[in-house]
């Protein structure tokens, strides 16, 4: 067991988004890579902005992604409690330490942290008032990703508000000390806080942890950081849309991390083995929903059939696909499995399944008008329908190869080609112009359905 202790420290003030997931993932990966400990700490001191509902989404999303925590809510550990709202006693104790060291003072009812250095007053144009500045040496943040960063902190800052609530900077540092965190891996947006944090660590007489500020995730289009409001930002959304968690994890791992070479789809064990802080880029990553969808497709394609079926069935239940298709009792399991297997190599995501398979569940599937015009626009569709209708009565529909041979023989007997039957057959049995192979559709639908559908289209043409 290594001594590495990392933490993911979300504030439950909003939904769990790609950025949170990536920070959680990089911490988890680093812990797993080094054999260290992954701590989940909930930074919920801001009672007005926190909600139990958001907290539940954090737990749920992390579990869904497979980012299990070794210490934290529900997992226990020797450094608890792991919710800041339950750690008031710890903060009081640490505040006393700072007081005893002469590093605090009271002003306007709040407790301030006193920087070390000579004080002087200046008029601040921006704030339109006189402020007290402190002459300090630059604070050095030794960052595993960004290298040596120097920042000036030249104003004392509040650590406990007048309402008695401790401020983020204070509780964040106290907990990193109390929980013996060795590496702080967090978003680059926190780099501007780190100089305050280093000053606090020093005031406590504690060596700061190794910082690693990971690059921002930019929104797909246009400048700026991806926010929770951007399309595709919420992890919950991928869960609902039936994305595979391993695909989401794989895609997110590549947002700002470079495993070297052209590696893209990688089993999680390989990601864990390869992940390290020097491999994290300094430059920002750009979110791309097409790449995410593509990754998901690669994972769907590679799923063993029984796992694909299981995932699709979960999706069908969650989205009430049969009910929405107007089916009152679920089709036989073996039939559903056949339809799903037929679809696996053809779809990009589970969310495409309802539309892709709709005509398998009901006789009242819609007709694509363009496909209809095209299929009926050439040759003699009525004659072909009649021939197909007769053929299907006695055709061997057991295998795709058998069906293909049968259709070819039928075409040949009329001096025609396979292609002369395909479009009109597809239109009749699916209402569409594209989809799985017509032979597979015939096989899965079976004689009765195929015959009825051919007959109905023939009848509609008069
Ligand atoms: N609660 C902070 C956040 O949600 C944590 C910052 C940190 O990881 O230190 O961003």
Key descriptive features of the protein:
462 residues, alpha/beta, Rossmann fold, Arc Repressor Mutant, subunit A, three-stranded antiparallel β-sheet, two-stranded parallel sheet, 13 strands, 45% helix, binds glutamic acid
Protein model, in words:
- The protein has 462 residues and is α/β, with parallel strands linked by helices.
- Among the domains are: 128 residues, Rossmann fold (3-Layer(aba) Sandwich), CATH 3.40.50; 59 residues; 92 residues, Arc Repressor Mutant, subunit A (Orthogonal Bundle), CATH 1.10.10.
- The protein is built from 18 helices and 13 strands.
- A 3-stranded antiparallel β-sheet has the order 3-4-9. It has a two-stranded parallel sheet with strand order 1-2.
- The model has no long low-confidence stretch (mean pLDDT 95).
- Glutamic acid binds next to β10.
Can you summarize this structure?
By secondary structure, the chain is an alpha/beta fold.
Examine the secondary-structure arrangement and name the CATH architecture of the domain at 87-214: 3-Layer(aba) Sandwich
Assign the CATH topology of the domain at 87-214.
Rossmann fold
Q: Count the E strands.
A: 13
Name the CATH class of the domain at 87-214.
Alpha Beta
Cross-sheet strand order for the largest sheet: 3-4-9
What is the CA-CA span between the terminal residues? 78 Å
Spell out the CATH superfamily of the domain at 87-214: HUPs
Helix content: 40-55%
Largest sheet: 3 strands, antiparallel
Report the portion of residues in β strands.
5-15%
Mean pLDDT: 95
Query: Are any ligands bound, and if so which?
Result: glutamic acid
Determine the number of helices (DSSP H or I, runs of at least 4 residues). Answer: 18
Oligomer designation: single chain
Please state the CA-atom Rg, rounded to the nearest Å: 31 Å
What are the segments in which pLDDT stays under 50 over at least 5 consecutive residues? none
In one word, what is the shape? elongated
* Category by helix and strand content: alpha/beta
């Amino acid at each position: 067991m290594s001594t590495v202790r990392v933490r993911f420290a979300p504030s439950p003030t909003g939904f769990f988004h790609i950025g949170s997931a990536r920070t959680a993932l990089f911490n988890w990966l680093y812990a797993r890579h080094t054999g260290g400990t992954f701590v989940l700490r909930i930074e919920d001191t801001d009672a007005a902005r926190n909600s139990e509902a958001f907290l539940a989404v954090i737990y749920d999303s992390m579990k869904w992604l497979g980012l299990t925590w070794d210490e934290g809510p529900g997992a226990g550990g020797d450094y608890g409690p792991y919710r800041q709202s339950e750690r008031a006693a710890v903060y009081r104790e640490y505040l006393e330490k700072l007081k005893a060291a002469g590093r605090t003072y009271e002003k306007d009812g709040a407790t301030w942290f006193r920087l070390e250095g000579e004080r002087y007053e200046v008029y601040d144009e921006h704030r339109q008032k006189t402020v007290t500045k402190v002459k300090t040496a630059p604070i050095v943040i030794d960052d595993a990703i960004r290298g040596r960063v120097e920042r000036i902190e030249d104003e004392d800052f509040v650590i406990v508000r007048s309402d008695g609530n401790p401020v983020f900077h204070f509780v964040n540092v106290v907990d990193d000390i109390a929980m013996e965190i060795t590496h702080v891996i967090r978003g680059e947006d926190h780099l501007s806080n780190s100089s305050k944090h280093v000053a606090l660590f020093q005031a406590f007489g504690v060596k700061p942890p190794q910082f690693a500020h990971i690059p921002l995730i930019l929104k797909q289009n246009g400048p700026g950081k991806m926010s929770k409001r951007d399309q595709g930002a919420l992890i919950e959304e991928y869960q609902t849309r039936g994305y595979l968690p391993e695909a989401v994890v794989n895609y997110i791992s590549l947002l700002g991390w470079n495993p070297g070479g052209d590696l893209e789809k990688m089993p999680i064990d390989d990601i864990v083995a390869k992940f390290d802080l020097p491999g994290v880029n300094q430059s920002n990553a750009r979110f791309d929903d097409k790449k995410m969808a593509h990754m998901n497709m690669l994972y769907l394609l590679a799923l063993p059939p029984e796992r694909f079926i299981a995932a699709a069935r979960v999706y069908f239940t969650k989205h009430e696909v049969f009910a929405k298709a107007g089916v009152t009792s679920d089709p036989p399991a073996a039939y559903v499995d056949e339809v799903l297997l037929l679809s696996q190599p053809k779809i990009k995501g589970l969310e495409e399944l309802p539309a892709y398979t709709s005509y398998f569940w009901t006789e009242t599937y819609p007709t694509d008008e363009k496909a209809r015009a095209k299929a009926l626009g050439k040759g003699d569709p009525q004659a072909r329908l009649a021939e197909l209708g007769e053929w299907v009565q006695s055709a061997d529909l057991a295998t795709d190869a058998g069906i293909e041979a049968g259709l070819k023989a039928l075409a040949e007997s009329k001096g025609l080609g396979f292609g002369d039957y395909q479009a009109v057959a597809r239109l009749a049995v699916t209402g569409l112009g594209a989809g799985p192979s017509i032979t597979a559709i015939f096989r899965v639908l079976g004689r009765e359905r195929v015959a009825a559908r051919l007959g109905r289209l023939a009848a509609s043409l008069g």
